[in-house]
Amino acid sequence: MRRMNAPADFPQLAPIVDDLASQGWSHQSLALPAELTAALAGECRARAAAGSLEPASVGRGDGQQLREGIRGDRIHWLEPGQSVASDAYLGLMDELRERLNRELYLGLEDFECHFALYPPGAFYQKHLDRFRDDDRRAVSVVAYLNADWRPEQGGALRLHLAEGEHDVLPEGGSLVVFLSAELPHEVLPASRERLSLTGWFRRRGSGPL
Ligand code: OGA
Ligand code: MN
Predict the structure, then answer these.
(1) Which residues line ligand 1 (CB under 6 A)?
(2) Across the beta sheet with 185-187, what order do the strands follow?
(3) Do you find a cis peptide bond into 15, omega within 30 degrees of 0?
(4) Distance from the CA of 187 to the center of ligand 1, in angstroms?
């Protein structure tokens, strides 16, 4: 896959920045190139088939039983160099990070990201992405990887906005970006397997080195 450069391949950068500045969140459908979405979905499924997805944890030190009552997804953290598609996605996220720093002075230092697979019926209860014991997460980014998602299949990302609930369907190629510390959200159960890439831009740690 060729290297993907903004803005030609990623024209949604500007509206994402504008939305974050004005309302703290953004939803862009068809934000990722179709070939990249398909390649990432294939990689996520291959990793699942190989048994290399792990149960996700919740904060730190929580037991397995508690975790499954809160979130039912399985994950794989991305490492640079693991695949052409993953590197293309990390490259796009770096374009977004630089743009956010340049235009909104957010001081975002790095990006951490994992594949997430929710089996049918799995959910993630209402939460904030900034943990009490880790205040580095500043901006959350979720990219959806399922083709042909239908509303009756469920699986929405429910944003708990000040003005009320807003549901976003996990449609392949769409992106949701929001301020991690401010926007409570949850994943509703779906009738089919739900694939995403969930990541966080982080600021420099504020604690002692
Ligand atoms: C998360 C999360 C949302 C989604 O992993 O923290 O909120 O739509 N994911 O997958
Ligand atoms: Mn979350």
Answers:
(1) 116, 124, 129, 142, 157, 185, 187, 196, 198
(2) 124-127, 185-187, 157-161, 164-168
(3) no
(4) 6
Model confidence over 113-133: pLDDT tens digits? Answer: 999 999 999 999 999 998 766
CA 189/CA 105 separation, integer angstroms: 36
| Distance from residue 156's CA to the centre of ligand 2 (Å) | 13
CATH number for 29-56+71-200: choose from 3.40.50.300, 1.10.10.10, 2.60.120.620, 3.30.470.10: 2.60.120.620
Question: Beta-carbon neighbour count of residue 111 at 10 Å?
Answer: 18
Q: Band of the pLDDT at 206, cuts 50, 70, 90? A: low
CB 179, CB 24: distance < 8 Å: yes
Report the side by side order of strands in the sheet with 194-203. 25-28, 175-179, 137-144, 194-203, 108-118, 74-77, 54-55
Model confidence pTM above 0.85: yes
Residue nearest ligand 1's atom 9 by CA: 198
- Retrieve residue 50's tokens: 């190989």
User: Measured between alpha carbons, how far is 144 from 30 in angstroms, rounded to an integer?
Assistant: 10
